[in-house]
Input
Amino acid sequence: MSSPSSPTRGRPARLDQARTIETALDLLNESGLDALTMRRLADAVGARAGALYRYFATKQDLLTAMAERMVEGVGAAAGPTGDGDWSEGVARLARALRSALLAHRDGARVFAGTHSTGPNTLGFADSLVGVLREAGFGDSEAARALYAVANFTVGHTLEEQAALRPENEESADAGGLHEAVVAGAYPHLSATLPVLTSTDFTEHFEFGLRLLLDGLRAVRQ
Output
């Protein structure tokens, strides 16, 4: 008798889309994006590789579904917007997006290559635009601010996860930068090396986020 998790002999496994996406995320966390293949995913769910194409016509479709699942609930992070502090609502959304991507190995790489139109991704976008429109920003300003905040957050997290990827030698990278700067004629970089080689990515992120918010305040004036 076959186990409950194994497909019946001679028959393809009965696929469930939500479970397949969760399994794909588990594989992502286990081995990273480069090791995630449709065949490996099919093996993990006990199905034939061709059966996956019932839900995902291409691997890109799978990655889009994974990205959509990763940002579930992020749109609710804005919280109440009636207190007039629009900048805190935007900051909460940006932080929530970063946290959601950091929760998965190579999460930013997956998200950056997709353009989901699912309710989780659109919910995040609608919340951020809504915070700004309710604060008096024009429609075009709010829309462009969405791109600025999302692109900064995803780009920052992409670099953050690349630096901390298991196969990278983080200390060696920092050491290489230190040696190159000190060996050359870069006095300004030498003076700022402690920050340039810092791995306090949260502080780096918060500094950039403050710059964005200050810029938005200037637009609103």
Summary: The CA atoms of residues 16 and 55 lie 9 Å apart. The domain at 70-164+199-220 is CATH 1.10.357.10 (Tetracycline Repressor; domain 2).
